[in-house]
Sequence to fold (129 residues):
Amino acid sequence: MMKIPNKKNILFTENEFNTIYNNHLPAKWLIFIFKYFSKETEKKDLKLSNTIMYILLTLFLIGFSGTILQLSQLIILWSTLIFSGIIVIISITLFLAFIVNNRRIKKIIKELNCTTLEYNNAVDLWKNN
Fold:
């Protein structure tokens, strides 16, 4: 069961929080990454991540079955290179999004002079409505 945040754990006003939060809004690419590739992705937004997953699965199966069936080395090479490239690009992008978002949150916490728990409670109380 999720704990519902309350105002007594928060030592700043909603106006102070909104002002500082709005000074450190996430970049558009960061919003895109978290919208389509996070645990909180909504069902209506799963189309892109599912499409990428099916492309990766198809490339993997081409390389795997090509190796088993001893198909042309060129087919195996290209499917493996494309698969690896997509995996590397997605991994680096997700890692950078994680780092950038954590730095943004740390800046907000530092300016609010609060703890991470207080910040999370404020976000749950004032932003997730």
